[in-house]
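job 3f2a | input accepted
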Amino acid sequence: MKPSHSGFTLIELVVVIVILGILAAVALPRFVNLGADARISAVNGAAGGLRSAVALAQARYMAVGNMTATTIGLASGTPATAAVNAGTGIPTGTLAGIGAMMGCESATACTGFVTSYATPTAVTFRPATGGSATCQAAYNGTTGVVTVTTTGC
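job 3f2a | predicted structure (153 res):
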């Protein structure tokens, strides 16, 4: 009787290594760009938060019924009010307006985002880590429109 040897031949090992190499070459590029995908998702999330903040401010403004008011009371938190445009209830493009609705801590920071209140019609929210100046959600404090730009993320 011939003794049986167990194990893999050299050809079998080479084939397995080649298959693993091909899989790695195909899969690796999918995972390399996760940072950009995360920043894009963060910007889209901020845009959703901005839109929700505008809708909540307008709902609160209409519920109170004073169409000449320039502030609305917030249910909880600090500050206790948010600045809005009279007649529409859209939060102003300031820290006291949309910043208060979003819960921003300061004029340059809003949990995970760098904010800029350059003009009331061009408030920007950019991811705090990575990305370029074009990776942002922009808020117009006059119209309440939110614009998302994900180039450069």
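job 3f2a | The chain has a mean pLDDT of 86.
job 3f2a | closed
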